[in-house]
Amino acid sequence: MAVSKKKALLDQHRTHWQWYRDFFSVAILRYFVIWFSLVPLVLHVFQSVPAEVHWRTWSIDIRPSLPFSWTILWIASVAYTAALVIFTVRCPDFIKKYPTFAHYKSFGHSPRWLVWLTFDVKNKGGAPWEKLFSRLEAKKYLEVTERNGAIPVEPEVLECGTRLSFCRDGKTYVFVMPRGTPEVTEVAEQEVFWEIFGAHSGGQRVWRGIIIGLLFFALALFAVVLVQHVWAALPTALANLLESLFGMWGWVLSRVSVL
Questions:
Q1: How many C-beta neighbours within 10 Å does residue 236 have?
Q2: Within 10 A of 25 (CB to CB), how many other CB atoms are there?
Q3: What is the pLDDT of residues 50-65, one digit of tens each?
Q4: What is the reported pTM?
Q5: 93-129 residues labelled b (16+ CB within 10 A) or e (exposed)
């Protein structure tokens, strides 16, 4: 049951690779990486600095104190940085290069290029290819044909289009782009793109699961730091608020007594 729930979570759209790409693009979260880099350097510097400086009868504490645990925040930054490194290394190049269909179109690719992208997924095999094959077959983009002779190892570039041929379960399938009229090709281009995108985005569940775990761990530690920060400032803030309120009421009462 636990395994099936985990699989269901990782099959959800919000846990696919494209979501992490957007998440790691948030500028404010990059401060975790900065904190991860600076803390060891700052600690090394302050280890050689005395905690207090004595001058005559005065003693001055020159080491800064933080209203939260820098250790907890640093561990959170380690978890975030590790998740970012895993994403950078393991995220499919297709997702990083073509995060949306608009990005894909901005490259000016011919519809024929989708045949080569499909060929790339086929060569890698595994779950992405199984998913892509089933979707292309269901949408009638794959044609079953009888072909004499050897099947080309790579797609064929023909006048009518680029054609990918392959055997599966005793049948010979053909995938061709472009298809028919420009209008039909435009619809097919968008649909096939998103099918290739989906094949890439839902793969590598283990690595995506590790990233989710690291991000939730970092979020939990950051919540602890946030509570520490608020708790440290809360007494002073409440004292100032009460002083302001009572001071205001004292001014109001004095004006009423004058009247």
A1: 9
A2: 10
A3: 556 556 566 555 555 5
A4: 0.69
A5: ebbeebbeeeebeeeeeebbbbbbbbbebbeeeeebb
The 8-class DSSP code of residue 109 comes to -
**Where would I find the H helices in 91-174?**
93-97, 101-106, 113-124, 126-138
Residue 61's identity, in one-letter code, is D
Spatial CA neighbour of 97 closest among 115, 77, 117: 117
| Rg (alpha carbons) of the chain, rounded to whole number | 30
Predicted pLDDT at 1: 44
27-51 pLDDT per residue, tens: 666 666 665 566 555 555 555 655 5
pLDDT in tens, 141-173: 999 987 667 888 999 999 889 999 999 888 899
HSE-up of residue 11 (Cα within 13 Å, Cβ side): 9
CB proximity list for 153: less than 8 A, separation 6 or greater: none
Is residue 94 within 8 A of residue 200, CB to CB? The reply is yes
- Three-state secondary-structure class, residue 172: strand
